[in-house]
């Protein structure tokens, strides 16, 4: 098991918490068609917060639970900074959690 798993699991919980705190957590899943987008961050079918909840968090939890190899790169913070450029204060907690996630992925210890 990768030594970063516990820290990454904590970051995933923080990301989920921030989505919930900001009201960006959906109770109903997007359609299967929306979730099957092949575009980066599903930009053609989902809002960024939906992608975080339904694609990113789901996939990362599977990786951790099944002890699969972690990604070797992550640029989620960069996307979040573009998406939330007009809401810097509102998105600060989420961007901070995503920055730490990116750092954990890049620093393969």
From TrEMBL:
One of its GO terms (biological process) is single-species biofilm formation. It comes from Pseudomonas versuta. Pfam families: DUF446 (PF04287). Residues 8-104 form the YqcC-like domain. This is Pseudouridine synthase.
């Amino acid at each position: 098991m990768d030594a970063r798993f516990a820290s990454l699991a904590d970051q995933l919980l923080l990301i989920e918490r921030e989505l919930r705190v900001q009201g960006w957590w959906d109770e109903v899943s997007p359609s299967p068609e929306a979730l099957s987008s092949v575009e980066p961050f599903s930009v053609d079918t989902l809002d960024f917060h939906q992608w975080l909840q339904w694609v990113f968090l789901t996939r990362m939890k599977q990786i951790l639970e099944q002890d699969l190899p972690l990604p070797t790169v992550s640029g989620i913070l960069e996307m979040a900074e573009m998406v939330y450029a007009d809401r810097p204060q509102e998105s600060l907690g989420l961007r901070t959690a995503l920055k730490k996630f990116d750092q954990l992925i890049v620093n393969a210890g």
